[in-house]
Structures
1.
Amino acid sequence: MALETPGTNPIRYNGFARLLHWLMAALVLGLAALGFYMVTLTYYDPWYRTAPDLHRSFGVISFILVTVRWLWRKKQPPPAMSGSLKPMEKLAAHWVHHLLYGLLFILPISGYFITTAKGDAVNVFGLFTIPAIFTQQPIANLEDIAGFIHLGLAVCLLTLVALHIAGGLKHHFIDKDDTLTRML
Ligand code: HEM
Ligand code: HEM
């Protein structure tokens, strides 16, 4: 199986890939924090409407960024992994990256179904809207089911991100290889 085939830059991810990675990382961690915060708000809190508006808008941006990153990755494959990685580590990194992409795609889609379950469009920063597919819930409690899935996927994503960060730091500080510097 071809794992992370070498790209044009053999040492580091190219500048655009690095920019997208760190933008995505900041956005996803911010969205998760905002998501957990906003579900604790009560009707009279000044952020009651603003926080979900921002969450949905930035969530759509994260979806766009991940799509751009994925298309860019197809055009410019990542540099070969550090030679010091064992085959098992390469396989694990390969699957963690693909699972991260999978979750980064379907998490915003589940969010879209929470918002649009009853026919509401998704308003993105008041600039444009993404219409709902259904005018009324095609199955009972679609909003709740999508909410349950959204929470579950967010927990899976955060668990995987924690593993991913631990891996990056381990390679940098313990193995002292170039895994992290390739992304800096
Ligand atoms: C929400 C946070 C994050 C997400 C969603 C995320 C996602 C990803 C994804 C999808 C890749 C694969 C890139 C590709 O090959 O196309 C990647 C690579 C990488 N990430 Fe992250 N990342 C996050 C945070 C971090 C942090 C905080 C670090 C620092 C320790 C980090 C270090 C790296 C490194 C070093 C690579 C390259 C690994 C390799 O090529 O083997 N990431 N990240
Ligand atoms: C990477 C992107 C996203 C992340 C990491 C994320 C994360 C979260 C988290 C952690 C929660 C709290 C869940 C709970 O405690 O029940 C949440 C709630 C929510 N998210 Fe997202 N979200 C993302 C994208 C989106 C998008 C694109 C939308 C809509 C278009 C959206 C709509 C919602 C809604 C409506 C809630 C409130 C659910 C409820 O009231 O139970 N999210 N999100």
Note: Confidence is low (pLDDT under 50) at residues 1-9.
2.
Amino acid sequence: MKKQSNLKRLMSYAGGHKYLTYASWILSVISALLALVPFICIWQIIREVLNTAPNFSEAQNLMRYGWSAVLFAAVSMIVYIGGLMCSHISAFRIAANMRRDCMGHIARLPIGTAESIGSGKLRKIVTDSSAATETYLAHRLPDKAGAIATPIGLLALLFIFDWRLGILSLIPVILGFVIMTKMTGSRMEQKMKEYQNALADMSNEAVEYVRGVPVVKTFGQTVFSFKRFKGSIDNYEKWVIAYTKDLRMPMMFYTTAINAVFAFLIAGGIILTHGGVTNELLLNLLFYVIITPVISTTLTKIMFMSEDGMIVNDAIQRVDSVLNMKPLTETISPKMPRDNSVVLENVIYSYDGVRDAIHNVSLTIKAGQLAAFVGPSGGGKSTMANLISRFFDPKFGRVLIGGVDIKDMKKEDLMNTVSFVFQNSKLIKASIFENVRLAKPNAPKYEVILALKSARCEDIIKNCRMALTPLSVQKAYICRAVNNKE
Ligand SMILES: Nc1ncnc2c1ncn2[C@@H]1O[C@H](COP(=O)(O)OP(=O)(O)OP(=O)(O)O)[C@@H](O)[C@H]1O
Ligand SMILES: [Mg+2]
């Protein structure tokens, strides 16, 4: 039931491409059934050889059977490749759409939310979780369809060949299934989740740690800063070992069971031949000996599939955890602020819902007034500044700019009204010019340079030799600067 809804969720990202996914399943089933035919051909060759022995020249059909085996194997492979092509096109589209939806949603989230989750964690959710669905859709589901078709095909063959031997070869399969169900139960799913969480935490801490290296070096805080990173590694270790240990015994029994088909067949063969070896029985035994490897590969495929099912379930939940975060409310009738005054009215904000970071703050900053928040670390200065820029909405009270509640302002208008410099500034991997222009994508070059100049960044530009401006624009800019002075 749950699996199905997962699949439905995934398919909702596929659009018209979902038919390709279905086509890949059908092709995979056809390929799996075709792949059984060469085994029958080989069996026919053996039968003919046994029946004509020792006058092998009487065996007329060997070539025909041999070529049929090759032909069916080749066709089966081609059909399988065709199926994979279909499933890949659809899977990549789905992964891309998931990423696009996630990023679109993250862009609408309060800046504070993304900031507090951590960019490492968000990156992992957006890229890795969608990638996990890609393997599942492109490989596992078509393989699953094929893996279901194979035992059904084998069952049909049971009636053609010796049913007693058929049943013997199916016993390990059933054993394997039972052990596998144990391995993929709900308890394991929980463990798997913990393991994924630990992995995400470790990745996040690693990113934060590397980012913080300059600070760490400056203040010589190696041990302290390393503690959190090390903690996350230790935690990861704990879960990996727990997970592995839990799987050790079932995995051992499982591997033994699916590789024990021969043991069952040989034992069965010995018992059945007590009444004397007949050509027919020997032939049938040979057939099952030939086809046995198919059984174990099929089962192994199915096993990895259920593990992947768990991964995909987890991936969807993670993607949903991002998509379910509430974006900031957008007003339908936006208002423009009268001036640049800032007013806080009885503002309360709490990060954790337990302790207020700021409690009942009211203040007025007049337009053009220079104000500074001064106080002890952890006093709530950044929180107040963040509330004014609407990184998040206050739990209680209002923030007004120019007499307008900032919730009633259009996001673009608010962003054009407030400017902020982060404590931990982030630059994108592009030129300084492009970093500055992020704030106003259609700003002409001279305006960017003017902004840099007012921020006293001329030295940086000179040193970086960011010769971005064509001479004509530079001239215009110099003219403007001169005119402004006058
Ligand atoms: N993202 C967050 N999640 C949970 N709690 C937070 C978060 N950011 C800040 N806090 C808590 O809110 C309180 C106020 O923090 P804030 O960052 O506003 O203080 P600050 O005055 O800016 O401190 P500093 O001078 O160190 O920058 C502190 O107790 C802090 O631990
Ligand atoms: Mg601060």
Note: The first strand starts at residue 342 and ends at 349.
